[in-house]
Every structure is written in structure tokens, then in C-alpha cells.
Amino acid sequence: MKDLTPALPLARASLGSLPSDVEVPNYTRADLSPGIVHIGLGNFHRAHQAWYLHRLMQQGQALDWAIIGAGVRPYDAAMRERLLGQDCLTTLIELSPTSSKAEVTGAMIDYLPIEEGNGALIAQMANPAIRIVSLTVTEGGYYLNPVTGGFDAAHPDMAHDAAVPQEPVTAFGAMVEALRLRRDEGHGPFTGQSCDNLQGNGAILRQTIVGLARLSDPDLADWIDANVSFPNSMVDSIVPATGPDELALARRFGVDDAAPVTHENYRQWVIEDDFCAGRPRWEDVGATITPDVHAYEAMKIRILNAGHQVLANAGELLGCDTIAECMNDADIAPFWRKVEADGIAPYVEPVPGMTPTAYVALIERRFANPAIKDTTRRVAFDGSSRHTGFVLPILREAIGAGQSVEALALVEALWARMCFGTRDDGSVIEANDPAWDALNAAAVAAKDEPSAWLAQDHIYGELANNADFAKAFDGWLTMIWAKGTRQTLKSFAS
Asked: Is the dihedral of CA 145, 150, 156, 161 positive or negative?
């Protein structure tokens, strides 16, 4: 890594002048044409799906599959401005425990305006050149009932998009309207491809799109259900948020990038081969194409994503700033290993070449990577979606199998304690969930009456009525308040 002063501003015109140890696109970006609209241009997409496409382009493939970026919320405008200011190029910095390297990727060629009614997004998706519309809109962004997993038709956003389908406020409403235009104009459909951490993410996207369409146009809903593909996929790479340290790191590589992305030295993408309008040959650059994504999804979502929640709440309470610090903590790490071994891995099936036990060991190494400054706060964010999506399904399976629920009851008790809003040392935990006020009120009530936390029906539903879980939860939360988080973790792991 070089320490250049000043670094060169990232732009198409400067690619040939960047330091030689920064890999740059070898394709001519003027030769690219769009085939994908991606909604939700965060760090993960740029380090994952966009990277796979970039690697194909480096081989001379997929030049007609370039990405048009899009967003539907006002806060997306800031990212749009940053990326358009550097010709939609991104510096990716790979961080292994002992080294780092940088490359500039160029698979994205434009970013649509963020506007009320989403007219530009609808028009772009209605263009028959677009064959895939992909999304990273977070696990909690699919308008799901958190208890039933069904489509939440009563949500105000869905009610709006059903009432005014030509001027939607959501990505899903825009997709429905674009599909209506394609149908009416005699064009074929595009594939809807979720890249979010949801088990059965394609099936969930189908449920949301078809469910929303049915509210306003049942015939269109039937056409979408019969003609549009929604492949399931499993996506995996740890990609921290970008802050001052990441901006400075890019400059040390000689690149002045307004939105660089750091990522671990690991990626995995497992994709169901179900694309109604074709797809790039992602398998040529390492993606796994399979008719059965479910087992891969379950392994990753349960061991990694649920495992993140196991760490993050304990880490917040004990003041660990990053996930790597959590894995280096003398009490959090043994607690995490025991929860994974006793409470999670027994409910995970092996996949080709990987057992659950081996995957736990792999995740432990990845979480412990000190070069990845993945904050505990980021991982703990939106627990109301992540616990319901990642942890509670395992708990239900354990109850159904008549097995111990002690490990996961402790995980839920730690979440409840964290939502009280203070750490064990008395410092304040700032609001970190879209439903923070309600969670905090339940956590305050649960300090004296633990059942108040489980009474949140929209989260726990019938789980609150399970005597074994309720008893274990009560015992752990009572111990946390009486003896503190660290002593509770010691008691569990001993």
C-alpha cells in the first residue's frame, strides 16, 4: 500500500493514472449496456453482486448486463450524488487478517434520480433491455408479518401503493407498475432477484410483489405469478459500513473515493437457476448455481446471521465496539461457541463439502478477523427484524423437537436487557431499532416482570405460551439483572 499525497480522485478519466497495485477495469466502460436495475445501492451490493459482474466483465463477458442503480428513499440521494460524481466507480478493499488489496470496479454505469412517484425507476424497469431487477433493501424491508411470515397488506406503504399504483412509494410498488407496463406493451417480464439475508428470499419477494399486485389488479397478479421468476439465493460476505477510517484507507492506496467499500477476504453466492429473461454466467467467477438453495441458506442464516445476533447483544452490553473484539472477549467467545454448538448447529443440515460443525469453525475465523471493523452496533441494528427472522425460527424448531431452549432463551434475554438502553457499566445505548421506543418500554417493564418482554405478540406470538421457553427466559433475564451480563455468560458457558 502506498501513502500518496494527494490521492487521485476516482473517475473514469483517472483510471489509467492510479497506482499499479490497484486493479482497474480492463474493459471499456463505453461498451457497456444495461441489463440489471439494482435497488438499494449499499456497500453489500457493491462488494458482492456488482463484484461478481465486474469479474465477468474482466473476462470479456456480460458487457450487456451492466447495472443501473436505484433507490426509493430520500436518503438514497446522498449515495447517488457521491457515485455519479465518480462515474459510478467503486474502490473495493479486501481485508484479510494480515494484508489488504484494492481494486476499482465498474459494472455500474448510472444511478437513477430519487423522485416522488418513482417515475424514472418505473420507466427504466419497463425498458425491455432490463432483464433482472435485483434488491438489497434489508431483511425488514419486505412487508412481512413478523409472526406469520405472510404479506402485510395492511401496512400504510402497501395501502398507498395499491391505491395509487402509478405513483408508488416503495420499490415493490415500482416493480409492480413496471411489470404492468411491460405486460401491456407486449414485452416479457424481468426476473426479480432478492439479494437480502432472508431464507427463501425469492419466494418472499414473490409473495410481496404478487400480494401487492393483487390488492389493485388481480389479473396482473396472476400474470406476474405465472410469468416472473423469483430465484432464491444465499449471499455471504461481511461488509462493514464506510466511515472516516475507510475513506482514509482508500487514500492510502492512492484513490480519493467518496464511497469506498471494505470487505473480508471471503465471498459466497449460491443461486437458484430460475431466470425468465436470462442471466450472466456468474458460475464462471465462483458463484454456485443449484436447484436447491435451501440448505445453503439455512446454514448461513442460522450459523452466521443468527450467530451475529448472539454476539451483538452481549457485545453491546459489555462495551465491545466490534465483532472481532467480541470474539476476543474471554467470556463472550465461549458463550457464542456453546450457543452455536448446543442451540443452533443441531438444527442445520450439511451441504456439499461442509458440515455444520465445520461451518461454525469457519464463521468463528471470519468473525475474529481483526482487520474487519464491523461494529457491534451495526450488527445489533433492527433486532426486531433480525431476531424474528434469524433466531426465533430455530427456537420454534427446538421446541417442536422437544429439545432444550436454554441457549436461545439466553440470547433473547440478552436482547431484552440491551433494549433497556444501558450497558452494564451504566453508559447509554442509543436507539438502534425502527421500533426502539416500543422495545425499550417492554424492556423496562421486563426488568421486574420478564414476561412483559415475551408479551410482544408481534414478535413472539405463541412462543410466549411455551412454558419451557418462558421459564428459561425468566431465569436468564433475572440473572442478568442480578449478577450482570459477564457473570451470566460465565454461568452458561461453564
From this structure: positive
